[in-house]
């Protein structure tokens, strides 16, 4: 019995050791309580990553998402607001399009650590801000969202394209998520939304500006090391 217990403990430890690190609960957010869609506002996001930590070594940037909570379901990121922000940059400008969230919805911001060197690959799980309220928007929950379905892909769809993505599911979702025709057509539709409506600068963010991102990240990280040594 003791041997079995020991083996179970080893198995559990091995399983958790193999899981990717989750960057949850450590990020500091300072965001307005009320936000108006279509207007740009400044938020403070401090990832508080130690340059000497594992996350500090493998990430150099972070992504900012809009997180929604469809009625009766949990909260999750649905689209990105800023594709890549240098890891130690704390001031971020955010604009939530009017068709991204229903008027009066309680929303959150969400972030994850990323690697610009790897084309913006997501490194960690998501972290969340406190809830805030959005006004001046004109979106309506799709039936797919009300049924707890994920629509689009939060790492491919910008919030500028999310209203278009929602309309794809309004058009093709008939209540059966196993419908192959629905899956095929809705997928092709939301991919087209992302291709046509994502900010044109996104492509360049994934190439040349990566060098600038890395330069800023290295400089700030070096500064943190110097301060830590004083």
Automatic annotation (TrEMBL):
- The answer to whether UniProt assigns keyword Membrane to this entry is yes
Where would you find the membrane-spanning parts of this chain? 208-227
Which keywords, in A-to-Z order, does the entry hold? Answer: Membrane, Signal, Transmembrane, Transmembrane helix
Domain of life from the UniProt record: Eukaryota
- What are the boundaries of the signal sequence? 1-24
The protein's name is Ig-like domain-containing protein
Organism this protein belongs to: Fusarium pseudograminearum (strain CS3096) (Wheat and barley crown-rot fungus)
